[in-house]
Amino acid sequence: MIDTLTIATELEEAGLTRSQATAVAHQMRALTESSLASKENLKTIEANLQKEINAVKVEVKTIEANLQKELRQTSNATIKWVAAMLIGQTALITTLIKVFS
């Protein structure tokens, strides 16, 4: 909070009239207060940010769950592929042994 009385007094002592000094001091206060955030502004901003943070947390959990599901599916597909390849190799080796023995 700006002390307009002190500012006005100092301006008056510097040579301005009382009305000029008072007007300048009041304008300084108005400009300063219009650019400062109040506690209520900060609380509102904090609440909005907290809502956004919570929404992002929910989204991250959803993405994580989807990634884990996809990872399990990929892992299962890989295991099936490897098992099929092993069976195929075994069949090929068995056939080659029968053919060349």
Please state the structural category. mainly alpha
Count of helical stretches: 3
Radius of gyration: 38 Å
- Fraction of residues in β-strands: under 5%
- Give helix % range: over 70%
What is the distance, rounded to the nearest whole angstrom, between the alpha carbons of the first and last residues? 101 Å
Spans with pLDDT under 50 lasting ≥5 residues?
none
The main pleated sheet reads as: none
**Shape annotation:** rod-shaped
Mean pLDDT comes to 92
Q: How many individual β-strands?
A: 0
Helix and strand element order: HHH
Describe this structure in words.
The chain has a domain at 1-36. The chain is 89% helix and 0% strand. It contains three helices and no strands. It has helices at 4-13, 18-35, 39-100. The chain is rod-shaped. 3% of the residues are buried.
Summarize the structure.
The chain has 101 residues and is an all-alpha fold. Helix content is 89%, strand content 0%. The longest helix has 62 residues, at 39-100.
Question: What are the main properties of this structure?
Answer:
101 residues; mainly alpha; 3 helices; 89% helix; rod-shaped
Element layout with pairings:
Elements: H1 4-13, H2 18-35, H3 39-100
